[in-house]
Design brief:
- Helix 1 runs antiparallel to helix 2 and helix 2 packs antiparallel against helix 5.
- The chain is mostly helical.
- It has a single domain, classed as Four Helix Bundle (Hemerythrin (Met), subunit A) (Up-down Bundle).
- It has 6 helices and no strands.
């Protein structure tokens, strides 16, 4: 059912993407704080929709399909914009790229594994990666508008930590996926 609360929260994360992206084109600290608030709210809905779905037994096929896509779309769009608008240093393009590539890898693995009817549960370490990433990115969004702390440095350190966890969890998922790929060769 598309209209359940968890599904609406997931859809809201997708709906906020063009607004956050558009705020990159608006000058001033207000736009940065607005992007921070919208992304932070979206990150909270990511946790909240899963909690509500499980606690109220509202887990749906639509939600299980769309939730990880919404997360990836939001994160990838904002990482691209941070890079495009020089809101991260050039050296931090690397962890941003690692995060984006891992998201593509895991999505591909999940798609293949779904075809052979194998689930790939999210690991505890992957949840930590997501949590750190969902804190680092809004810190980078607010950037220089927060004059009371070195937000860019804090955000970039968080991005690097998330990227390291991304490599570890991506490798774990790849290893698990490869076992199933080898076990399910294409018929000749």
């Amino acid at each position: 059912m598309v209209t359940s609360l968890p599904n609406l929260l997931t859809l809201s994360r997708i709906a906020v993407i063009p607004i956050v992206v558009g705020l990159f084109y608006v000058d001033g600290d207000g736009a940065r704080w607005a992007a921070w608030a919208l992304f932070s709210l979206a990150a909270i809905t990511d946790w909240f929709d899963g909690y509500v779905a499980r606690s109220m037994n509202l887990v749906s096929t639509f939600g299980r399909f769309l939730d990880p896509i919404a997360d990836k779309l939001l994160v990838v769009a904002v990482l691209f914009m941070l890079a495009a608008f020089d809101r991260i240093s050039q050296v931090s393009f690397l962890p941003a790229l690692v995060i984006v590539l891992r998201e593509i890898l895991v999505s591909g693995l999940r798609e293949f594994l779904a075809e052979v009817r194998v689930g790939m549960p999210v690991s505890r370490l992957a949840k930590w990666k997501t949590g750190i990433q969902m804190v680092a990115i809004p810190v980078l969004l607010v950037g220089d508008a927060a004059t009371f702390m070195p937000t860019r440095q804090i955000g970039e350190v968080g991005l690097w930590v998330a990227a390291i966890l991304t490599l570890i969890t991506g490798w774990d998922y790849l290893q698990s996926g490869m076992r199933h790929i080898r076990a399910n060769p294409v018929p000749k």
